[in-house]
Specification:
Number of helices: 15
Number of strands: 10
Helix content: 40-55%
Strand content: 5-15%
CATH topology of the largest domain: Aminoglycoside 3'-phosphotransferase, Chain: A, domain 2
CATH superfamily of the largest domain: Aminoglycoside phosphotransferase (APH), C-terminal lobe
Number of domains: 2
Length: about 425
C-alpha cells in the first residue's frame, strides 16, 4: 500500500487488513476512532470496539512534515522506524516499562501498540497534583536498563557499534541540535515566548558566557555516543498510574549522551514545580506539592545513581574497562573509584543538558504544557523567569555540582525569591 495519511474515517478499514491488529478485536467489531495526538509531530489515534471498549489499541502514524511547523517544513517519515526499533529494544531491556507493540507497517510509517487506558500523561497529572508512589523506582529502572545495557559499560565494542549503526537518526538529531541548542538563542522565525519575557530572552541571547557553555553541551549531544537514548524523555512522554509506569514516543532515539535523558526527566519535574505558581493559588498547598515534586527529583537521581553503580559492579562485561582489567592489586577499589567518577560526571552533565533545556522551553519553538497552560501571562512569567534563572545556574555551575541536592538547592533559592 502506497503511503498516505490516514484519518478517523479511513483508519478502521486499514486496521482490519492488518492480521496482527485485527486479532485484537472481535470479528466484525464496530471500531471507533479518536485522534489524540499533541500536534507536534505525528498522527495518534485511539481505536476501540464500541461494544467492548477494553478492546482498544493506539495507532501512530508519521507525517512527512513537522506538524507543529506545518507542511512548509518537510520531515522524513523514517522516525517511525526508529521508534519501532527503540520500542523493541526497550521491551527486551525494560519489560513492562513501555507499551507492547502489536504491528509496524514501514511503508505506511505506522505503528500499532498497547492502549494504556488506565494511565495518565504525567505532565497533566502533575498539574492536578497527583502522586505516584512507584514512579521513582520505575523511571530509574528504565533509565539504568535502557542506558547501561546499550553502552560500552555492558556491551562488547563490536556489538555496541553495530547496534549504534542501526540507530543513525540524522533528521531528528538535526531538529534537536537546532531547536534545543541553537535557534532559541538567535533570531529564528519559529521561536516564541511570553511577551513579558522580552528582556530575559534578549539577555540570554546577548550573554556570550552562557552561549559558550550551551555550545559545549551541544558538542556533547552531537559527539558523545554513549548509549541508546530516548532523546525526548519529558513528562509528556511518560504515562502512568499509581502502580504502573510506561515510557512512550522514542522517535528521537539515537546513540548519544546518557545524561541527556536523565536531565530531561529532572528538568521537566522542576518545570512542573514552577508551574504551580500559576496552577495552585493556595500557598500552603502549593509549597507542599512543590516539595513533593522536588522529592521526585532527588529520588530519581539517587536511585538512578545507586542502581547504575550496582548493575555495573555486578555486570562489568563491556569492552570499556572489562572485569579482567581490574584483576590486580587494588583493582576493586580502583574500579569503585572509576564508577564514582563516572556517575559524578553524569550528574554534572545532567545539570548541563537540563540547564539548556530550561532555556529552550522558555524561548524556542515548543514550550511545555504545564507552563503554557497558565492563562494569566503575568503568573506564567513568574514561572518562566524562574526557569531561566535556574537553567542558567544549572548550566554555568555544573562543574561544582557534587550531589543532586546542589541542583535542588538552586531551585529552592529561586523559588524563595518569588513574591506571591
Amino acid at each position: 500500500m502506497a503511503y498516505h495519511a490516514l484519518n478517523e474515517k479511513t483508519l478502521p478499514d486499514y486496521l482490519r487488513g492488518r492480521p496482527a491488529v485485527a486479532a485484537r478485536f472481535d470479528r466484525g467489531a464496530d471500531l471507533s476512532v479518536k485522534e489524540v495526538g499533541d500536534g507536534n509531530l505525528n498522527l495518534v489515534f485511539i481505536v476501540a470496539n464500541r461494544d467492548e471498549p477494553d478492546q482498544a489499541v493506539i495507532a501512530k502514524q508519521a507525517l512527512n512534515y513537522l506538524r507543529v511547523a506545518g507542511e512548509s517544513w518537510p520531515l522524513t517519515r523514517e522516525r517511525m522506524r526508529f521508534e519501532s526499533l527503540a520500542m523493541q529494544t526497550y521491551n527486551r531491556l525494560c519489560p513492562g516499562l513501555v507499551p507492547e507493540i502489536y504491528d509496524y507497517d514501514e511503508e505506511m510509517s505506522l505503528m500499532v501498540m498497547e492502549y494504556l487506558g488506565s494511565h495518565e500523561i504525567m505532565r497533566k497529572a502533575l498539574v492536578e497534583r497527583w502522586r505516584f508512589p512507584k514512579f521513582v523506582d520505575h523511571i530509574s529502572t528504565f533509565l539504568v536498563s535502557s542506558l547501561f545495557y546499550t553502552s560500552d559499560f555492558s556491551l562488547p565494542g563490536v556489538q555496541k557499534k553495530e547496534m549504534q549503526a542501526r540507530f543513525i537518526n540524522p533528521h531528528l538529531n538535526k531538529l534537536q541540535e537546532d531547536f534545543v541548542y541553537t535557534n532559541p538563542y538567535i533570531s529564528s522565525p519559529e521561536n516564541k515566548w511570553n511577551p513579558l519575557m522580552d528582556s530575559e530572552v534578549e539577555a540570554i541571547r546577548a550573554d556570550a558566557g552562557v552561549k559558550a557553555e550551551i555550545a559545549q553541551m551541544k558538542a556533547a549531544y552531537m559527539t558523545h555516543a554513549e548509549a541508546l537514548i530516548h532523546a525526548d524523555l519529558h513528562t509528556g512522554s511518560i504515562m502512568l498510574n499509581e502502580t504502573d509506569t510506561r515510557v512512550i514516543d522514542p522517535e528521537f532515539c539515537f546513540f548519544g549522551p546518557m545524561a541527556y535523558d536523565v536531565g530531561a526527566v529532572l528538568q521537566n519535574l522542576v518545570l512542573n514545580c514552577l508551574s504551580h505558581f500559576g496552577h495552585t493559588p493556595d500557598r500552603a498547598q502549593r509549597e507542599e506539592y512543590q516539595d513533593y515534586v522536588l522529592g521526585l527529583v532527588r529520588g530519581v537521581w539517587n536511585e538512578f545513581a545507586r542502581k547504575l553503580d550496582e548493575v555495573w559492579k555486578a555486570h562489568p562485561e563491556g569492552d570499556l574497562m572489562p572485569a579482567r582489567y581490574w584483576e590486580s592489586a587494588g583493582g576493586t577499589d580502583a574500579f569503585a573509584t572509576f564508577r564514582r567518577a563516572t556517575i559524578l560526571r553524569l550528574l554534572q552533565e545532567t545539570a548541563g543538558h537540563g540547564g539548556v533545556k530550561f532555556l529552550r522551553r522558555m524561548m524556542g519553538i515548543v514550550n511545555v504544557w504545564d507552563i503554557e497552560s497558565i492563562t494569566d501571562i503575568r503568573k506564567r512569567a513568574v514561572a518562566e523567569k524562574a526557569a531561566i534563572r535556574i537553567g542558567v545556574r544549572w548550566l554555568m555551575d555544573r562543574s561544582r555540582v557534587t550531589s543532586v541536592d546542589d541542583l535542588i538547592r538552586v531551585v529552592k533559592e529561586e523559588i524563595a525569591g518569588i513574591q506571591t
